[in-house]
Structures are given as structure tokens and as C-alpha cells.
């Protein structure tokens, strides 16, 4: 039923009325595929054959970023903070592949060293947002009535705030720092996530298999972890991967307002905000960190999507 | 005739700060200035003031300079400063207010090319022998735009308004500290009684924050007066669309141009649309595409680009008062130790950074005062850089090198907190601070730059949570030194504000500054200020960077823009080519 | 209804106390902004005039009392009634946000449609475009749009004007990242729908791909995105803070930013209330839309 290259065909699911329930659950290796064309090949060959170019490219890019985050010194031995005013605003060259910035710092080195704080902001802020959203969504969608009510109201109030206001207030209260920026961004994306996840929970809850689980007398926690969460995971996945780029960008918006990661730290968002002043004189200042953000976000999204698809298909 | 910089000066032409301060009053820039001699409009024979004149760059087409000024038209001005919350510069008193108020309010005095006070709304004045009373006689042919005549009563009402705590004046209030009361001698003469002689008073009266407004209008109450102050200026406030623009209409009955004006009657422009465009790149883009005629707060990269554009001209009008400098908080450790301050200055190399970050548009300063001020004393000697000497000084002071490169003493790290206001420091300046941070790290200083909004920034200063700070201060005359470095300035105002950020507490300096403020003889006054500046510079309390940058860019088709006492532009002479 | 009132109350309360907790003295804002050198008398006068000398709880109760009678208080910095300040700024921001919302939707649909038409390559390309769009910071995108369309081509004004041409660049700046996000969310459902049995059966009935997309797939795709409209509006307000600064456009976003910076409590709380109200209304509209599109929801 699913061809070896995992084209769009999928188990027929999602008929408007009653989705055939548990077919999508990742309940271990599905025997069905083994009867397919690849059946005769060893498992690792099957895996390999199924790896697509997109996945490979995404994985390589992400690995590169992770490597940069873990051991930036390997990829760029220089210091990201070493200034050299005489060398300011050098366009890309062999000596400075991404050019130099307004203080003569090497942009390549800064992009590499910026991977750790940037990805940390991206991952941590997204995680904060998602966890908050999951808790609120779960409480609202599945808990007892009073909890549902409370969580519902909290989400609503949360929502009613423009995200940036939360960030502005938090920063005004504590002063700007990367940690505060991360929390602020996490808080400001949480309502959006909560909304999507809440909607997803609602959709899944109405599905036949959950109703069946209710009939079987499963408790809400078991229903949640066993049925609802795995089925809503697709959206969560997309949100998480998208969130990576989005949160870094939101943090850079704070830098634009002068409230983000304090200078001169090498962080993609802050670099982007600082470089915009010289958009016309030195466009490479924004192109390099901007491309890094987009690459990280795109690679994470594409890979995320593929993995999710695979989970569904298997 | 106003002195002009030599015509070959490109952006950042070096002129000798130490000796030719007054020559640099005026820098006219045209583009492309490096290749073509400037064509300048002639300044009227009476031209006075720290003024500049827009040069006409190789304009082609109709309405060239030769054909003379054109009547009418709407000028669009784009300001990068914050929109004032009150258009009456008596209330509070900041630069954005001064910029716009220059168009509709005027002062008793103006400053000439040597920055000496000359009559404006005041026709003449006379100082009593003991220096404790100043008789100011106002002109008899001036009427406020609401029909109220200019009289001695108006002078008294304005000073009372400035001194009324309800007004909440900062700048004006401070400038009138020594004024005890005002007596109306006759219809046109007001006698200002002083608690002690005040040699800075006439200079201070030239500031827009002490502008003379219609007494009848002041009585309307703060809310109304904030929305539309009434003065004697070439324009009147007609509309204020908040966050968007202020519309100024020509004052058809105008009779009181400043002494340097070439135009003697009403302004040539019919209307000014005063817009607020906070983002520098947008502002420049609007100028380049012709949507606006003038922009202020032009950023260094834009100025350097404009130099290549025939259609855009440049005015460099450094603000008076203090230079842009970093102050070292000598009121607490570690900067209470002269050796540590000296070490910091030895380690802080800024010249190359200023050159590259400001694209050659800013010149290094070695003075506490703006280069346009009288009695400015600049001395590069205390500011030489030498890393080895810095290290030796720190060793001597007991700060020993730590494992991570940061020095320590008794377990304390050599940390310097540096709150930076994003409202006051432009990106290039913040980058310069980063470079200083990197430079002094070599000597073992750990500078922590904290970017803060204005309110939090003042809070940090009020709580004494800083070792380094850069705070602009605009005022007319060298008396600004007393405001900034007299030990009285350490005592915070009830709001927590204090001006002496270096927390310089030196009885000898106090005495010099007090004495200078009482001394009317200009030569003697100059000597006192020179000694005062030697103490300030020699004690390594400040690191001067450059003048307070104040660049305007305008369309080459706009002529006759000059700046006044605090380097705000006036459009009384201005006209637009068709 | 009661829920909406609760939301408004809670939003106002949280904002009120949060802004008051921020360092900085509101009395200084009243008399000319931070760094004022005003004397104790002036500060005391300002405090008395605005009731800042009362205990905090009493100020709060007074504020709530004012709210009930439709009085949002008086701005510290602007010395004008908050209702007036917001009334002046709201239309501009609403026009901007709604235009951006519509543009965002249109672009997102276009992207999803385009991607649904082709094979895997076009889907990957579509994803890349969407993710890129979603990862574009407003301040950068806006600056580039100004550079291209205003400075270089001279087609549109760089400074926002009240007329339509002045609205295009700011709205686009907000719409493009939004379209990326909406597109991503929609695509998930669109893919599911395309692969589902009803799509197969529709194809079997001879429905054209275009017809299939517009008549069937779209319905599924729009659902999760529609439920996001209220949220999208919120992010647009956040984006407006930046876009209004960039394009020098008067509006609520800039007002809010300046008010937070100036500790102008009444304006911040008032703005939050208005945004909360708009959110409540738009969510309601989104729910209605959802019900129209999704027959299942009508039963509930």
C-alpha cells in the first residue's frame, strides 16, 4: 500500500465522518509494509533506500549546526568578539568568507559561534511555548470540568495579550538578558500553540477511537497518552520545527527594539538587528545570519515533516 | 561674515580642535564635496551666530540660486527624535522640543559667530555695577501671534512660568537658578534681580527652553499651551496629529527675524509639515525619494552615501554644551582610584573605531566641552593609549590578573557596569562602546554593556549602579561645566536625577566653577574655565569621544537653512526651488 | 459573554499591576519624561493630580470604577483621555492589521494551492518558501521592501501615508511572514485531505484537480487556520509595533511601545483592553467561519 519512496499515498484515513482509528498509531513496526517490494532486503538497506534527498540535505544541515553549537572552535577557530576597527565593513573575501561587521569582527566566525545561543533560544523558547500550550490544551480539552474551565479562561486571557507586550513588560521588569528574552518569546508564542494544539485535541477527541476508549473505560490520562497525544503529534511536530525559526526571529525583533541579547554577543537575531542599520552599505551583515536562521528552520521543518510522515506510514 | 570651513573639507575634514574651535562653528557640506568647490549662498552682511547655510550643490534645472528666493510651498521636515509630549519647551525641556519650538518661539538673546550674546527680542540690556540686576529692554515692534504685544510683563510672566514648579521645567529652571524675581520697570524694561552675579545668564537666555511666549497664552493652562504654544516666531502651530505630524503655518505678521537672518519679513515657506520618522533608514529613504525635504539625526552611513548624491546636501551642526564623552564614576570603587581610571583610558583605543563607524563624519574630541563653545580647552595628552602602562597601573593599584583574563582584587572582579540608553546612543555609538569593551578587556577590565530604555537607564544612574556612562548634555556656554562637574551636581534632585555622573568632588574645581559663573570679564572667565577643564581632563574623569553629533541632510533644492544657538535649524530664510 | 468580561477584566488587572511593578516613576512621565529635574513640589503635584499618592489597591479600584463607566483614565505622557488617544490611533492599526490578515490569507492559499498541484519537488519548494517567509523578521523584510519598492523603483512611498499606496508596503511586511505560518498550518491539513478517501472518490467521480482543491481540500485546510485568526490578529498587533516604527505609521502598536517605555500605565492598560476586545470579537468571527466550513461543528 505504500510504495517504497513514500509518495503521497497513505492509508486511507480521515474520511470526514469516522476516521478508522488506530491505524495511525506508532505501535511499533507495522508488519504490513514488510510484504511490500522491499520485503526481501535487510532492514538497513530498506532504511537507506527510503532516505530521500531532502531528508539527507536537511540532516546534514542540522548536523552542521549542531556541530557548530557543540564545538564552534572546530569550524571557526577565531574569537567571535575579536574587534579590529581597521577591518570594518569588509565585503566577503577569502580571508572573511562572510565579510566583516561594523567593528571588523569576522561574520563567519560570529555565525558559527552564534549557533549555540541562537539554537538555544529557538529550542528553549519553543519548548516553553509548547509545554505551556500542551498543559493548557490538555487541561482544557481533557481534564475535569473545573480544570477545563480554569485552563480555558487562562488561555483566553493569555491570548488577549499581544505577545510583544508580555515580552516588553518582562524585559522592563528584569532588564534585558538572553534568558529573559527566551522566556519572553516562549511566553508570547505559547498562546498560538495552545490554540492549535487545543483545536487538534478537540478534533482527535471526537474521533471514533477515542470514543471507543471511553467506552472501554480507559481513564483520561490513558486516553490522553495512548490516543490523543500521539494523534495530535503531527501538529505539535510542525509547530516545534516551525517554532525554531520563528522564536529566533521574535528574539531578533526584541533586539530591533533594543531589548534583546545584549551586545556584542554573537547571536543570529541580534546580528540581524544590528546589521539592518547597514543594510545598504553592507548587506552581508544581515544575509549571513538571516540565511542561518532560515536554513535551520527549513531543515528542521522538512526533516520534521518527513519523520512525521514516516511514523504515520509505518 | 561667518567663518566657513575651507571648501575642500569632505566629510570629517580634520580641523584642529585645540585651537580653532570657533572656526568650526560652521561646516558647510555639499556634495560631492571632494571633487567640486562649494558654491555657497552669501550670508547677509550682518550674519551672526553659529549658523550654517545650506550650500547649493550643482543644481540644474529651474529656480537656481541666481534667480533668487521662491515664495511659497510646503516644507516637509522628518525628525528622528521622539515626538514631544508637550510643544511648550518650558515644560520639561528636551532637544526634540527645542527643534520644533525654534519654528514658532523666539528668545530674548541670540548668539553670534563667537557665541557671544547679541540682542534678539531684547533690544538691549544693562547690567548693574554689582552684577545683581539685569535690565532687559524688549523691542517695541513685536507682537505675539495671538495679538498680545511683547512687553516687560511678558518677560516677567515667562520667567515666573519657568520657575513655577507646576510647569515642571528642567532645563529652563536650572538656567534661572540665580534669578530671584523680575520687576517691571516700565512697559518695555524688565529688571531681573539676581541672588549673585550670573555670567551665564545672557547665554542661557538664547536657549529655546527659555523662549518667550505670549503671557495670555500661558494663562490658558498647561494642556492647551502644550498643544499649541503662542510665540513670535516665523510660523505658528496650526495642527498636531499625534504620532504623525505637526503642521506649522506661516506667521504673516512676522517682524522679528533673528539677527543673522537675511530675510526681514515673513518666511518664504507657506507651511512646514513636521513629521516623525523614528527609523533612520526609512528617514533617509524618504529623503532620497523626495518625500521629505529635510531630515535630522542623519546617520553616518547615510551621510557618507549622501555625499555621492548631487540631490542631497549636508549640514553638520554639532550641539553646544558638553561633548559626547564617557564618564567614569569616581564616586565609588574601582574608579575612586586615579590609577584605575588612568588605566582604563590608556586601554580604551577609540580613534580607529570613530573613523570607521562614523564613516569619517565625526571628529575625535579631547575636550569636555563641545568644540563650538567659547573657552573650550582640548588636550589630547591625558588620553594617549598604552596597554603596557595600563597593565602596570592596575598592578600597582592591586588589581591582579585572573584566570579568565579579568583582573581581581580581594576577590572582587574588575567589572565595569555600563548602562546604555538606546534612546540616546545611536547604533554606531553602541558599536563604539562594544569596541571599547573589547579594547579594555585586553587590560583586564570586564565591561558589561547594559542596553536599557530611558526610564530604566535613569533608574540605574539614580541607584548608582554604574561605573561608566555616556550622557549627552546640551546647553549654551561653558557654564555647562558647573552643571556637570560641580560637587553640587552629585546631590540628586527629588526625582533621583543628578548631572555629575563622574561624581567629581573637588573643592578646588567647585571654587573655579563658582568663580567663573560670577565673573563677567570674558578673559578672566576664560582663564577660570581653562583651569577647570585642566582638572577635569587631567584627572581622567572622562573619556571624550566627539561632539554631540547633529547632522541634517536636505534636498539640494532647499536653500537658506541655518542653525541657531543650540544648533536647531531655522527656516525663516529657507525657500524651495520649484 | 461572561467569559469575555472575565478576559477583559483579567487582562486589565494583570497589565495594571505589571506596569506599576516596572522600575521608573510614573510621576516623572507626567512632568516631562524620565530624567526630569523637577522638584519635589512638582512631583507631589503630579502625583496628587493623578491619584498616584493613594495606596495601590485604591488606585486599582478607582481604575476599575472608571472602566465600568467607560473611562480608561488619562494618559500620563500625553495628558489626554486614553479613549481619545486610542480612538485616534485605532483606525490606522485596524486597517493595517485587517489588510495584512487578508493579504496573508490570500498568499497562504496561493502557496498551498501551488504546492498541492505539483509533485514532491514543488511541495518541498513550497515548504521552503513558507518556512523562509515565516522566518523573515518584520524589521528586515520591511527595510528590504522599502529599499526595493521605494528607494530603487520609486513605486510606493517609504513613509506610510493614509491612502492606499501607503498601506501596501506595511501590510505586505506583516502579511508575508503570516502567510508562511498560515501556509504551513494549512498544508498539514491539505495534505491529509488530499490523501483521504473522499478526495479519491471525488477524483473518481471525475472532479478536476482544481475543483477538488477549491471545493473539498480547502475546507479542511482552512479549519485550523481559521481557528487561528484571533491569534493571528494578536501577532499582527505585535508586528505592528515594529512595522509602525519602521514606516513611521501612527497606530496602536507604536503607542503601546512608547507607553511601556514611558511607564504610561493608563495607555498600556487601555491598549491591552482594546486589543483583548478585538481578539474576543475576531475569535468569535473565526468560530463562526469554522462552523460554516465544517458541518460537524454545526451539530455541537
TrEMBL record, chain B:
Its main location: other. CDD domains: PBP2_NikA_DppA_OppA_like_15. Residues 116-485 form the Solute-binding protein family domain. GO terms for molecular function: peptide transmembrane transporter activity. GO terms for biological process: peptide transport. Residues 1-39 are annotated as: Disordered. It is found in: Cell envelope. Coiled coil: none annotated. One of its GO terms (cellular component) is cell envelope. This is Peptide ABC transporter. It comes from Sediminivirga luteola.
TrEMBL record, chain C:
The chain crosses the membrane at residues 94-112, 133-155, 167-186, 222-247, 267-289. The keyword Membrane applies. Residues 90-290 form the ABC transmembrane type-1 domain. The keyword Transmembrane helix applies. GO terms for cellular component: plasma membrane. It is found in: Cell membrane. It holds the Pfam family BPD_transp_1_N. It is a multi-pass membrane protein. One of its GO terms (molecular function) is dipeptide transmembrane transporter activity. Keywords: Cell membrane, Membrane, Transmembrane, Transmembrane helix, Transport. PROSITE patterns: ABC_TM1 (PS50928). It comes from the Bacteria. Gene3D superfamilies: MetI-like. Belongs to the binding-protein-dependent transport system permease family. This is ABC transporter permease. It comes from Sediminivirga luteola.
